[in-house]
Design brief:
- By secondary structure, this protein is an alpha/beta fold.
- The protein folds into 2 domains: 2-117 and 291-321, Alpha-Beta Complex (Quinone Oxidoreductase, Chain A, domain 1), CATH 3.90.180; 121-264, Rossmann fold (3-Layer(aba) Sandwich).
- The protein has helices at residues 42-49, 112-115, 119-132, 149-160, 172-180, 194-201, 219-224, 247-251, 263-266, 270-285, 302-310, and strands at residues 2-7, 16-21, 30-39, 63-71, 83-87, 95-99, 103-105, 140-143, 164-169, 185-188, 207-212, 226-234, 257-259, 293-298, 317-321.
- The strands form 3 sheets. Strands 3, 4, 5, 6, 7, 14 and 15 form a 7-stranded mixed sheet that branches.
- Strand 9 (164-169), helix 5 (172-180) and strand 10 (185-188) form a beta-alpha-beta unit.
- Helix 3 crosses helix 4 and helix 3 crosses helix 10.
- The longest helix has 16 residues, at 270-285.
């Protein structure tokens, strides 16, 4: 038997229930992974609350790492006993069946628990920095929630690419952390006037691109920091979804561009996923990114983990350990 976190109805953290289910059997093209760690992401909250519609009952979680314990028909390149990371639905469990196309063998140098945090956050940072906007030396980028899991990687990797990184974070401690990770300028987003402070840091020019995973609370302020024809990348809804966008908001601020990227468009195929996660692992091994696990919760403590994430009490990455 395998322990599984199940959501029967959408709602608060209390709807996350730990149940026992039969250990999965792989279908053709799948492997079963015994999790050693599962990464926690805000998209898990969106699914739990119903912001992102999922068939119920459902098991949250989209990334993890562990050991292959069973291999389905037609799978090549993976064997029982392999250490792997993966992207796949239903990761909040002791064991999970995963599409083998979204499984990657782990280098010996990469700890399994750290690998579990790199799939969603790492590939998101990769496609945002290389594909949504190809960051190059001399660019100035603004990163919201800069001490969170994805924000930390955006700051570190953006700086490694030669960009001037301006960071926003929700406390003075988190601001200091962003500076330590390579931000040239960092400000407290809970203080009024942060858009003006960001523009001042650019000499009044404005930033080339904004990476905003916060959503509703920061959307208009983010637009105010952009240079003419700059790009607003709204990639998350931590404060609620952005609604009521008028095109005149982009026109009046200098013919701005706006995009809402999702992983399905950037890493949805086997080839795109393997390319992206390969770049993430290379960045890890060369020191361009230096992720940390700052919170650990047992699978049985998943409700507590979600409460901490929603209360903005976390920094870096968070893992669940079966």
């Amino acid at each position: 038997m395998s322990r599984v976190v199940v959501v029967h109805e959408t709602g608060g953290p209390e709807v996350l229930r730990l149940e026992e289910r039969p250990t999965p059997t792989p279908r053709a093209g799948e492997v079963v992974v015994r999790n050693e760690a599962v990464g926690l992401n805000f998209i898990d909250v969106y699914q739990r609350t119903g912001l992102y519609k999922m068939p119920l009952p459902m098991t949250p979680g989209g990334e993890g790492a562990g050991v292959v314990i069973a291999v389905g028909a037609g799978v090549t390149g993976l064997s029982e006993g392999d250490r792997v990371l993966y992207a796949g639905d239903g990761a909040y469990a002791d064991e999970v069946a995963v599409n083998a196309a979204r499984v990657t063998a782990l280098p010996r140098s990469v700890p399994t628990d750290l690998a579990a945090t790199l799939v969603t956050k790492g590939t998101t940072a990769q496609y945002l920095l290389f594909d949504t906007w190809a960051v190059k030396p001399g660019d100035t980028i603004l990163v919201h929630a800069a001490s969170g899991g994805t924000g930390t990687l955006l700051v570190q990797w953006g700086a490694a690419l030669g960009a001037t990184v301006i960071a926003l974070a929700g406390s003075d401690d988190k601001v200091a952390r962003a500076r330590a990770n390579g931000a040239a300028h960092a400000f407290n987003s809970r203080e009024e006037g942060w858009p003006a402070r960001v523009r001042e840091a650019t000499g009044g020019r404005g930033v080339d691109v904004v990476y905003d995973g916060v959503g509703q609370a920061t959307f208009e302020g983010s637009l105010d920091t952009l240079r003419p024809r700059g790009l607003m990348v709204s990639f998350g809804n931590a404060s609620g979804p952005v609604t009521g966008v008028a095109l005149s908001m982009l026109q009046s601020r200098g013919s701005l561009y706006l995009t809402r990227p999702t992983g399905g468009s950037y890493v949805g195929s086997r080839e795109l996923f393997q390319r992206s996660i390969g770049a993430v692992l290379e960045a890890l091994e060369t020191g361009k990114i230096r992720p940390t696990i700052d919170q650990r919760f047992g699978l049985a403590d998943v409700q507590q983990a979600h409460r901490a994430l929603e209360a903005r009490q976390t920094t870096g990455a968070t893992v669940l350990t079966p």
